[in-house]
Records
---
Amino acid sequence: MDCSTRHFSSLICFLLLVIWCDSSFHQLNVHVQISNDIGKDLDLTVHCKSKDDDLGNQVISYQNTWEFHFRPNVWGTTQYYCSMAWKGAFHWFDIFVANRDYPYCHVCQWSIKPDGPCRFNYDTKKFDCFKWNSN
């Protein structure tokens, strides 16, 4: 390999590294807010996980909110799923899926209802409801 080819290859590698680093620094933190709208006097027990993180059990009283935040990975594959339980019920849901939620929401507001979770839509100013995941 002659000197000019080696310099050109090094320059290309350097530029790719700069582009990759720049894109990873622009990833914004995502805040996930989970509100208990199950029903009066019913606590909601939430246990959220990703492939890398286990956020443990959280008990959310009626009309209160718990939140967590994270930085999505550069590959766009970040996913968090949560089990949700209250008296007489147990469900789970993918509370954050990168290709569904990012970059649509950087603050993902979820209202948990008996029929399923509802995410606030910043365009319509209303909640869009989803079905629980199949067991």
Note: Confidence is low (pLDDT under 50) at residues 21-25.
---
Amino acid sequence: MKKKQKTETEAFSKLSKEEQLRRENLKNNRKKKSMTIVSRLMLFFFLPLFVGLMGLISSFFQNKYGTNPKPMNFDRDFIFPFLVTLVLVFVVSVQTMNFSTYQAAPLVSWPKVVKKRKVIRKTIVVDDHGNAIEDEDEILKNLKENGDENNAKPLKLKKSE
């Protein structure tokens, strides 16, 4: 029984040592992901070239078989789609740090908006029942309804000098 336990612990220790070596190799080999030369050529040259050629070919077929033929223009049919695709690939490349991350970073970091709270200070007159009374006319009307005729005059505040 003890021999069986020893062989199990030895096997486990070997596995744990291998696992530690594998983890150390991963830590040492962690370099920034980058694109190969072939992938850069394909993305930055062949993709825009392909889109430009598609524009040129579609212009050729429109000129030859279309009902409203337009003369072929190299700038409009090839250069413009080529440059638009090249700019698009470049912007995506900058946002994803040369395609090393899956999440795009913004080109410009905007400042965070701080929401300001507006503080309103006002005096609210409350009657005996806890209801708010807005203006002086309502106060007079409520006093007359309650039968307190003596206090039904508006109060005048004296200015202190």
Note: Helices lie at 2-28, 37-65, 74-95, 136-145.
